[in-house]
Request: fold
Amino acid sequence: MSYRLLALDLDGTLLRTDQSVDHRDIAAISELQAAGVTVTIATGRLHSGAVGAARACAIEGAIACCEGSHIIELASGRTLLHHGMTGEVAAVVRGAFVDHGLTPFVFDADGIHHEHAGAPYAPYIRTWSPNLRVVEQDVAWQTIPLAAVAVGDEAAVAAAHAVLLEHRHQLFSVSFAVHAVPGKHAVMVRAAGPTKGTALAELCRHVGCSLAEAVAVGDWINDVPMFEVAGRSFAMASAPDLVRAKASDVLVSASGVGGGIAEAIRRSWG
Reply:
C-alpha cells in the first residue's frame, strides 16, 4: 500500500513532555512532505494550542482540533467544519456545572473563557490553548462552545458527569483526575458525533485520498477512533493496553521522548 496521508496526535505523540518537537521527527516529516505525502494533525487541543507544533513541522493544510469538532485550514485560517454545542445543549452543560459548584472553562475556536475563580487551574487548562481570557460567567457562554471543561472535587465532578451522561445522545463527556492539581477532578464535554475517526475521514476527503491510504499515530484512548478507520495505525510504546490493542502496529518509542514519528514514517514508507 502506498500511503498518502499521515495524521499525528500531539500530546505524548508528536510533542515531547517539554512541548517541543524532536529534531528527528521534524526531519522525517520534512522528507515525507517533500515526497508529496500530506502530514496533518488530529488533536484534542484547540487550533490556538496546535499551531506551534504545526509551524515546527511546516504543516499548513487542514488539521483537526477538539477531537474533530473543529477542522481548520492553517494557511488560510478557513474553518472547514465547526461542530459546537448549540444553545439547548450548552444550557444543559452550564446547568450541570453550576448546580454542582464546579469551576467552568468554556472553549471556542479561538481560546478559552473562564471566571476569576478559574485562576488556580489555568496552568493546567492552558494545555488545550494558550489563549485564556477571564470573563464574567454570562459572557463565557455567549458563543457556541466547541467544548467545556469543569474542575472540582471528585464527588461534585462525578455528580455533574452523571447528569451529563443522561444526555449522551447529544453530548460526549469524560471525567478524570487532574494530576497537575492534586485532589481535583475534571469533566470534559463536547457535542456528540465528532471523533478523531470522523476527523480523519474528513481530512482524507479534503486531500483526495481514501482512509485506507492514511496512517495514524497516537497514544491515548481518544486516538482509538482513528486507529479503527486508518489503513495503518501506530500506538506509542507506553500507550494503555486498550490503545495498543486497537493499533495495527506498536512503536518502540515511548510517549513524550521524541523519535516516534520518525519511526512510524520509516516503517510505513521505508
Summary: The first helix runs from residue 23 to 34. The chain has two domains: 5-82+194-269, 87-191. The longest strand covers residues 184-191. The chain has ten helices and 14 strands.
